[in-house]
Queue: 3 jobs
Job 1
Amino acid sequence: MSPDASMIAAHAFHGALHLWKQAAVNKKEWTPEVVISGHFNSVEDVKWDPEGEFIISVGSDQTTRLFAPWKRKQETEVTWHEIARPQVHGYDMRCLAMIGRFQFVSGADEKVLRVFRAPKNFIENFSNITGIPMEKLCSHQSSDLPEGATVPALGLSNKAVFEGDMAVQPAEDEETFNTISNQYPEIYFQPLILTEPPPEDHLLQNTLWPEIQKLYGHGYEIFCVACNNSNTVIASACKASKKEHAAIILWSATSWKKLQSLSFHNLTVTQLAFSPNDKFLLAVSRDRNWSLWKKQDSSESGPVFSCCAYTDKNTAVHSRIIWSCDWTPDSKYFITGSRDKKVIIWGQCNLSVTTEGNMLDSIKPCSTVLDAGDSVTAVSIMPVLPSLHYCRYIVAVGLENGKIILYTWKQSGQEPALADWTMCVEMDNSRSHALAVKRLCWRHHAGRAGHNDQNSSEWLQLASCGADHCVKIFNVNRFAL
């Protein structure tokens, strides 16, 4: 209880905080207040929406949570809050990918991927809380969007709730309540118009997103998923100890059909990344190798990818599991980070040899090997080049000990020179994670979410999540790097 007895804070079984405040007029009335919330177990993945206005994270606490900046009329400070919990699942969540703005696909410790789409009630409340006008958010087909979603008493799938479904419940007398079916009503969802972040009880049942598709095809628990930049193809992989289970599956993001199975790796593929120009798909694996897949000319059934480069036991540089990978914004180079503490940038270093046929020999390490000092669990390259006059890339590296370090890398001549890597910032312990960094994700555009400097190129934001249950957002001044 607060010292002046006007507020009560409580901690719930599900790791949530509750806050109630005594009403000023009627002292017997207590109202729920905005309170901080977050995951109560390891956070496995985090992604920005393509417009950079919110982030979605998934965790081993079996939830998918959406955080956005709350814009208050009189306040200048922008604070971030959980404004929706699109998925409350029965399996530990593992990974997610955004498919456009208000749609995502997620994977958990189960064999199916699930696709979710934002309901109308979310878009309206998102507009109220963030101050972004509805016209900017809504596309033409918003009229047929469901209001919200609900989970049947014994189910796992979020079912859409449409306007007609929310009939007024008749007043219950004791007899009707005592029948089992009335104690567990089919529809818990109640649309609310929010102007501030919702309290916990509302997050649990009124902010679910309808599940619109399941993708069946993997034989074991889903481990990673990615979507290309034109939102047409999804790539996913599952846990595997044999080559036949380690295949990457490509799905159409329009028809949801299986397009292709890409077999190469012998063990679990740990991360997938499409190049910014969508011409390549990169995979890194527990088998210490990476594979690069090139998009062929589109056939009737959709794009077909074929393996154009890879490492094997003779050409591999990493000696332990490769945990993470990413692309430079110009699609020229890609980066890999491994448990062996090494970070390496790869590409066609000798660009004078532009033989289309033989890419395999031309993709080599373009950087010196960076020793990050501890197992590398996450890497991400800033999607905006820091300056145009010379090409240097800003790389965020997350370590198993929780540290996040920012480096710059610049290509130097034909042979990698000694000083191609420069450490810019090593986050101090109070800013870093306390346990392993699980994912790093830069905002796709310059500027800070929720601020009016959306187009100013000075600031960039980096989201991170870790095994210490935390999601963090860093403001990075790129001119200071």
Job 2
Amino acid sequence: MTMMQRWRNRKRSHFPLLGFILLVFIACSVLFSERTILIIEKNPSDSSPESTFTYINPNLEPTSDYIQELDRFSRCNTTGEYSGKKIRWVGLKPESGGGRRKRESLERCDVFSGKWVFDDESYPLYNESDCPYMSDQLACHKHGRSDLGYQHWRWQPHNCNLKRWNAIEMWEKLRGKRLMFVGDSLNRGQWISMICLLQSVIPAEKRSITPNSQLTIFKAENYNATIEFLWAPLLVDSNSDDPVNHRLDERIIRPDSVLKHSAKWEHADILVFNTYLWWRQGPVKLLWSDQENASCEELDGLGAMELVMQTWADRLASKSKYLDKQIFFVTMSPTHLWSREWKAGSEGNCYDEKAPIDNEGYWGSGSDLPTMRMVENVLRKLGTRVSVINVTQLSEYRKDGHPSIYRKFWETLPPEQLANPPSYSDCIHWCLPGVPDVWNELLFHFL
């Protein structure tokens, strides 16, 4: 046998071995790919097979006694770095037909794109002094503001008109129902606005309001209807859920549970949610429901808010009881803390501002774009289950609408601060009558 023949025989004898090795490699590749796909399917918000995140199922009923409700006396025994835990939730399946047609219809009439028009014939829709439920924090004229132009601005969409406000029609929409606002002090301002818009057509003996508490209820007996406000500034359970005593050194939340609040809001027929401002106040302490001994983690505001929005969305998506409710989410309310953003070279804020910004598309630092995108991503997965009331851009123009110094301040201000009005101006909340009335006109438009 020649050398060439021996080489050919040896080459043929290696083929079965090489084929076997190739088959093993292919099989392992398939198994690895299937495992990767399984990981991605289980953790849909993370497409990386290298992920080391732990996914938490939110809103589980407590199974042990160590889970205590958070209150203003709650403290973290220890605080560590954020562990990377994520909320496991699955959005609703895309809706066909009706939902798509509804969205297309809304796009043809974008009521959130427009301009402010001065209208001293039709606005304000009520007088500040005629509303017995007005808050001293929002009653700007009562507390010394003499220029009343802020009360006379009407929102005019570019290509259509808002439905004209009608208190009787609104009460008919609410007949036999519970309308509940859930959120922070800005949502409370919208709640007060709604009461002031509606209360005048209800006889005094047919209306009542409960004392200020976490859940405050205005009732109209002749319509068997209520307009309610639930103080839940962070939406999930937190140590800031006392409506009065919530100015704390550290914010502690249970990022995986809305159960304390949802037990109250699930009885309402129409829900209006908001949350934003409190997430802009620095890091947040996370106390997961499965953590004993008050072992907390610390996370930046945006990251914590994303966890909370997902926990909130999970509750709405996973319970059939929400199918019969109308649910709205009000987007972030802007602040006007730096006048240089609309007037170059100035160093003030909203103090002494008397007219809206007339630069269409103006966007200041008081509205955080990454937060807006995150909220949009969460709400998109909820489909038509939640309708969005986008108040951000239209409110951005209203640098003139804040109380600034014309409100009741609960603390005594020192003389040096009183001598410098911008130093204590409230450029966060809104005077009433004013901007929140338009938010409620938008709500009326969509109900």
Job 3
Amino acid sequence: MFKILLVCALVALVAANEVAEVKELVNDVQADGFVSKVVLDNGSSASATGDVHGNIDGVFEWVSPEGEHVRVSYKADENGYQPQSDLLPTPPPIPEAILKAIAYIQAHPSKE
């Protein structure tokens, strides 16, 4: 999972098309988990903590070429990778006709 974090941070750097210097770098690996953090002078950063069970909580952020601050937080555990961000796409709302059909099916279960 840490590899995904680093790849995302590197992609952000390449997209920005600039050379950034590392302001802060922490890689602390212990028997019961880890803490990792990188902060660049261009506003990009990434951090993550993990435990002995493979659960990871992290965040990465950068400034887009349009000047927008992008932040993605995530959790990775037995339920998989779960990113959260205002910029991630979301599904469209379920059409009213489908909601009515689902309600009807639930109210009238099959007799089989």
